Automatic annotation (TrEMBL):
InterPro entries: AKR_Detox_Biosynth, NAD(P)_OxRdtase_dom_sf, NADP_OxRdtase_dom. This is NADP-dependent oxidoreductase domain-containing protein. One of its GO terms (molecular function) is oxidoreductase activity. It comes from Patella caerulea (Rayed Mediterranean limpet). The keyword Oxidoreductase applies. Belongs to the aldo/keto reductase family. Aldo/keto reductase 2 subfamily. Gene3D superfamilies: NADP-dependent oxidoreductase domain. Residues 24-340 form the NADP-dependent oxidoreductase domain. One of its GO terms (cellular component) is cytosol. Keywords: Oxidoreductase. The keyword Transcription does not apply.
Length: 374
């Protein structure tokens, strides 16, 4: 176990806010149980959740992420019961709004002014606080004009219920529309994008992350280990029976998706297994685990402010925390991981980059290579 007296997480600025957050954010989707999809495996009860929160703080963590949909509100309630025993202003607390929470009221969903205002009030009650530091739209709402959503978030900032706004799970054009409309209406800008990002999922490098880089928006990767696929514990040809990937593998048609990756798709991907092999090689050379190297790669991407890690026990937390500080991947190691995990470059990106002769005809924009630090 990592000695908390000798180890502390590193900190980064959260976008352009001036707020400093630990570079590992504690994701709390594993806190609490609900009837959602028959119940998720490996969920933490309140006692274990509080142990994880306490240990995270001991390790230097100050950034906690949740959502009103996690365990149908139980995650927020568990955090609230812990938070009331703490000094509130020591922590950066984030939650989200969008999803329907199994409520008979058909208007209890999406990003309407009605739903956002009602949801923040309920989240604040469960969290037992009078404000959240970061309130995030959990997904894009095709039914509600984005102008209504942005004006509502800005009103919540003005009345002090939230300090900053962010978004999650949006496309590049959607994020650019948020940036442009906030600027046009002279509203508070969104400060963060919480997006699935890992060595197994790099699609946002083509569009969304360039918007972030140009506008000082912090990237907060979720599923850093692709649902455990990059943890190093799974072997090709050995269908898992335990963990969430094992849970999905038992019923691929019902559960396989981005949040709960399909084992059949993972097993058939040469790119994934080549990436895991390279992680193992680098990990052995540095005395680190596959998961630690995978998280470290994310931490050294210059757009990333904090990597969200979800854990089911104290051992996972202690192991993942090692990625935070005290060592780095070299520029050569970063490049090796970039190369082995590089997604196919689709049109028109390949043509644009090739015609502009980026990096001596390597076909890559500077974004893919300039942020790899020694």
């Amino acid at each position: 176990m990592t000695d908390s007296s000798e180890f502390k997480m590193d900190y980064n600025y959260l976008g352009r806010t001036g707020l400093q957050v630990s570079n590992l954010c504690l994701g709390t989707m594993t806190f609490g149980q609900s009837s959602f999809q028959g119940g998720l495996p490996g969920q933490c009860d309140e006692e274990l959740s509080h142990q994880i929160l306490n240990r995270y703080v001991e390790l230097g963590g100050n950034f906690i992420d949740t959502a009103d949909i996690y365990s149908l509100g139980n995650s927020e309630s568990i955090i609230g019961n812990w938070l009331k025993q703490q000094q509130r202003d020591k922590y950066i607390l984030a939650t989200k709004v969008f999803f329907w929470r199994v409520n008979p009221d058909i208007n209890r969903q999406g990003l309407t002014r009605r739903h956002i205002v009602q949801s923040i009030e309920e989240s604040l009650e469960r969290l037992q606080t009078d404000y959240v530091d970061l309130y995030q739209m959990h997904c894009w709402d095709n039914a509600t004009p984005i102008r209504e959503t942005l004006l509502t978030f800005n009103d919540l900032i003005r009345c002090g219920k939230i300090r900053h706004a962010g978004c999650s799970n949006v496309t590049g054009w959607q994020l650019q529309q948020i940036v442009d409309l906030n600027r046009e209406l002279n509203l508070n800008p969104f400060i963060s994008l919480q997006q699935q990002y890992s060595l197994a999922t790099r699609y946002d490098e083509f569009e969304s992350f360039n918007v972030c880089k140009l506008n000082g928006i912090a990237v907060l990767p979720w599923s850093a280990l692709k649902g455990g696929a990059l943890s190093g514990k799974y072997k090709r040809g050995e269908r898992p029976v335990a963990g969430r990937i094992g849970w999905v593998a038992q019923d691929e048609a019902q559960r396989g998706n981005q949040t709960f990756p399909s084992w059949d798709k993972l097993e058939g991907s040469d790119k994934i297994w080549n990436t895991i092999w390279k992680l193992e090689e680098i990990g052995k050379a540095k005395g680190k685990s596959v998961a630690q190297v995978a998280i470290r790669w994310l931490l050294q991407r210059d757009i990333v402010s904090s990597v969200i890690i979800g854990v089911r026990n104290l051992k996972q937390l202690n192991d993942n925390a090692v990625a935070s500080s005290g060592w780095k991947l070299t520029k050569e190691e970063m490049q090796e991981l970039n190369d082995v995990s590089m997604p196919e470059i689709p049109y028109p990106y390949e043509q644009i980059w090739r015609q502009n002769d980026y990096k001596n005809n390597k076909y890559l924009p500077s974004y893919f290579v300039d942020d790899m630090t020694d």
